[in-house]
Automatic annotation (TrEMBL):
GO terms for molecular function: ATP hydrolysis activity. Residues 3-196 form the Rad50/SbcC-type AAA domain. Signal peptide: none annotated. InterPro entries: P-loop_NTPase, Rad50/SbcC_AAA. One of its GO terms (biological process) is double-strand break repair. It comes from marine sediment metagenome. This is Rad50/SbcC-type AAA domain-containing protein.
Length: 206
């Protein structure tokens, strides 16, 4: 799209709603509050304002899901802006987050929205779902192939199979080692049994 059309702002709104972070922010804007400057200027002393983002997606089972995150701000007497945390809320950053999933004939609230979101779209591979033009060149760097491969592994859960295979191989080696340690004992036991059977046969033949 056209530069300056607000694509990065849209991406930041999405990632903030999902993870509580503006993950596509540039260095110039880093450290600023999520509430825009115009709203801050218009606030009166001790007045509050709310910032909220709501998105609709499909969950793992293809059901409609609504995710919403909000944050309240207050302008203090000295002009500073204070973030007001949602005490007892479900988010890790103090914002208010809610998630609803359509079940049968109604929306049902998800008890642990951040856990559910990270299961659907893991934050560690967010950049492979949402990226802007300014970051596109990163995908052509020398190590980008490795990053993409790791992301594919995470999405497809191939890592689980690899770990299972490694565990099986480690177990096989452990059993082989135990077998080698047991082999002399097994031979001794076999020799003792053979001796007993030989004596038994000799006694029976007398």
């Amino acid at each position: 799209g056209i530069t300056g059309a607000g694509k990065t702002n849209l991406l930041n709104a999405i990632t903030w709603c999902l993870y509580g972070k503006e993950k596509h922010i540039n260095e110039k804007s880093a450290g600023y509050l999520i509430v825009n400057n115009l709203t801050i200027k218009e606030l009166k002393e001790n007045e509050k304002c709310n910032v909220g983002v709501q998105i609709q997606i499909r969950d793992e089972e293809g059901r409609k899901a609504i995710i919403g995150r909000g944050r309240e701000f207050k302008k203090l007497g000295d002009g500073r802006i204070m973030e007001i945390n949602d005490i007892g809320g479900k988010s890790s950053d103090g914002s208010t987050i809610m998630m609803f999933v359509w079940v049968e004939k109604d929306f049902v609230e998800v008890p642990d929205p951040e856990i559910r979101i990270n299961r659907m779209i893991p934050e560690s591979i967010e950049e492979y779902f949402f990226f802007d033009g300014e970051r596109l060149n990163d995908y052509f760097l020398e190590n980008s192939g490795k990053k993409i491969l790791e992301a594919v592994f995470k999405i497809s859960q191939v890592g689980l199979i690899s770990n299972a295979l490694k565990h099986s191989e480690d177990k096989r080696r452990e059993l082989l080692k135990e077998e080698k340690n047991l082999s002399p004992n097994l031979r001794n036991i076999r020799d003792i049994l053979n001796q007993k059977y030989t004596k038994k046969d000799e006694n029976e033949s007398i």
